[in-house]
């Protein structure tokens, strides 16, 4: 598959098909075992009523397993969820997605609201995401803007400036704030004519970043504080102007036009 070069899609689908085949075989085997037990005549009672109850419970257990398809469907959907999570991570497709898109996709996997892992569903999903990569990149800038708290004086209510403050939460680190920083870095890479960074090497994965520490890249410097706040300083005013251009295109009545030089 041309959109995914770092992982064997065919092998992943074949493994999934083998898993489903074994689950369905197990379903059939349990049904056969149930019929053997029923045909044995062990459920007629006799001198040992306690044995009768044990065998009756066994038959009921078989009946439940055979008749309740949810047991087997949960096994298959659970496999699909793990396979999609692995595929999205290893393929690098998450690198195209904004912080909210990544979060939404994670919730779909957690709730198992994902399609069966087939070659067609993978092609359709990845083609759609690939076609939306520019939109998702711009979505990340808008989502960052909407996440800013206007209680901080350095956060402009109408545009990005030299610095922003992402307000912390009770936990450290605030994963969403760190993902917002990745949205900025991704946008600036692309606007600077460079390949966007792989999500496996981005700021969110920078495990050594702790409160009262700093992070540096070609485009931003980030300082963390004990309260969980992140102070993000932009190094490229020309690229900040392009971030503001995204806001202006989406909020033409709210964002003022840049001043003439």
Cα gyration radius (Å): 27 Å
Domain module count: 2
User: What share of the residues lie within helices?
Assistant: 40-55%
* Series of secondary-structure elements, N-terminal to C-terminal: HHHHHHEHEEEH
The pLDDT mean sits at 78
Q: Which of globular, elongated, flat, extended, rod-shaped describes the shape?
A: elongated
Tally the helices.
Answer: 8
Q: Could you characterize the architecture of this molecule?
A:
A hairpin with a 3-residue loop joins strand 2 and strand 3. This protein has 8 helices and 4 strands, in the order ααααααβαβββα. It starts with 8 loop residues before the first helix and ends in an 11-residue tail after the last helix. The protein has 261 residues and is an alpha+beta fold. Helices cover 55% and strands 7% of the residues. The protein has a 4-stranded antiparallel beta sheet with strand order 1-4-3-2, with helices on one face. The chain has 2 domains: 9-131, no CATH class; 134-250, no CATH class.
List keywords for this structure.
2 domains, alpha+beta
Structure in a nutshell:
By secondary structure, the protein is α+β, with helices and mostly antiparallel strands. The chain folds into two domains: 9-131, no CATH class; 134-250, no CATH class. Helix content is 55%, strand content 7%.
List the topology elements.
Elements: H1 9-39, H2 49-67, H3 70-91, H4 99-110, H5 119-131, H6 133-147, E1 163-166, H7 175-191, E2 214-216, E3 220-224, E4 230-234, H8 237-250
Antiparallel strand pairs: 1-4, 2-3, 3-4
Helix pairs in contact: 1-2, 1-3, 6-7, 6-8
